[in-house]
Structures are given as C-alpha cells and as structure tokens.
Amino acid sequence: MTLTAQDASKRTREICALAPIVPVLVIEDATHARALAEALVAGGLPALEVTLRTPAALEAISAMAEVSGGHVGAGTLVTPDDVRAAKRAGATFGVSPGATDALIAACEEEDLPLLPGAATASEAMQLLARGYDMLKFFPAEASGGAPALKAISAPLPQITFCPTGGVSPGNAESYLSLPNVLCAGGSWVAPKGLIDAQDWAGIEDLAREAAKLGGAA
C-alpha cells in the first residue's frame, strides 16, 4: 500500500521525537557500522541517519538495521534509485537535502517515511501543501540558523523542523529551544577520528551528552 504524506510525517515525527539529536553519519568502513550504532543507541541516540555519500553506506545501513533499539535511516536521498536502494538495505526512514516530485513519489511507493529538506518558506509551504509537516531545515546555519527558524514559526506554526547543517554543541540549544524544532541533526557525536580509532566508549559518551540537550533526560 502506498504511504501517504500524512502517515510519512507522522512516522518521521515519531522517530525524531526519540532524542534531541539525530546523528548524521558518514561511514567509510562498513565493518564499523554495527559497533558505532550500538554505541550511539547505548548513549541515548536511537535514530541514526547514514548519509549515502560513501560506497560503504548501504552495507552500513544493513548492519545497523540489526541493532536492537536503533532506527536507521538513509540520508542524502536525491533520486528514486537512492530510495529503492535504501529500502532494500533496511532503512526505516529517509532524509533528503531538498525535495522533488519524483523523490517524494518514490518514497511513498516504497513505504519509506521521508524527512524532506526545505530552506525557505516557499519550499516549506510547497511540502505542507503535499501533506508534509515534519521537515528538515537544511543547510541550517547557512540559511539563517535559529533566528530564521524562529521567524518561520510565526506564519507557519503547523510545520515542525529538524535543523541540520552546522549544528554543534555550541548552538544546538538555540535550535532546540524553539517551539517548531523537535530535534536537530548533528555529526559531532560520531567524529571520524573516533570512528577510525574504534573508540566506541568515547562515542557513547558524546551521545550521552547530546541526549541531554534541550532539557532531555
């Protein structure tokens, strides 16, 4: 059965509500994927976005999909082929930097809930008209940051965002304090150096600190 936009936003909203930070992961070596996911989930960040920017991404998604308590999604979805490959790999949601009719249609056909990207009020309104009210604000800092999202909340209070792009421990609270922000995407919880060193305890510690942001327990 084809996924509706309303159901897609409901399901992505439920995933986004699991923790204040969604780790944005660039994985070069799929053999690290399972241990990385286990560390992030143990630290309190169960929703994981694996970006389709490396040859190892799809294999990493498959490995992470087996981790208990985790919800692995595919990021950087750009084409319908990306959507189909992510679904086959085991992704339970998708994230895109923007949105096209073809991409949205593919996600609905594949029953893959999508967090579509928007950077302007017009883009957000177009997605809202299609039934999507849980959006990614990207690139967040380059698009005006928290002040821009605060301004958007006045005329478009029915839309909720997950800002991604330039979000850091230093500015995350400014986003998470906004009424129209449910969570934020961040890459700092899984830095390349710690992944390469297989320092899973260090990543778990970073995840635990990130899970406390925004007043979360």
TrEMBL record:
Record-listed E.C. numbers: 4.1.2.14
Matches recorded under Gene3D superfamilies: Aldolase class I (3.20.20.70)
GO molecular function annotations of the record: 2-dehydro-3-deoxy-phosphogluconate aldolase activity
InterPro entries according to UniProt: Aldlse_KDPG_KHG, Aldolase_TIM, KDPG/KHG_AS_1, KDPG/KHG_AS_2
Catalytic activity reported: 2-dehydro-3-deoxy-6-phospho-D-gluconate = D-glyceraldehyde 3-phosphate + pyruvate
Enzyme class at the top of the EC tree: lyase
Keywords from the UniProt entry: Carbohydrate metabolism, Lyase, Schiff base
Pathway given in the UniProt record: Carbohydrate acid metabolism; 2-dehydro-3-deoxy-D-gluconate degradation; D-glyceraldehyde 3-phosphate and pyruvate from 2-dehydro-3-deoxy-D-gluconate: step 2/2
Family: Belongs to the KHG/KDPG aldolase family.
NCBIfam families according to UniProt: eda, PRK05718.1
Subunit structure: Homotrimer.
Name of the protein in its database record: 2-dehydro-3-deoxy-phosphogluconate aldolase
Species the sequence originates in: Sulfitobacter delicatus
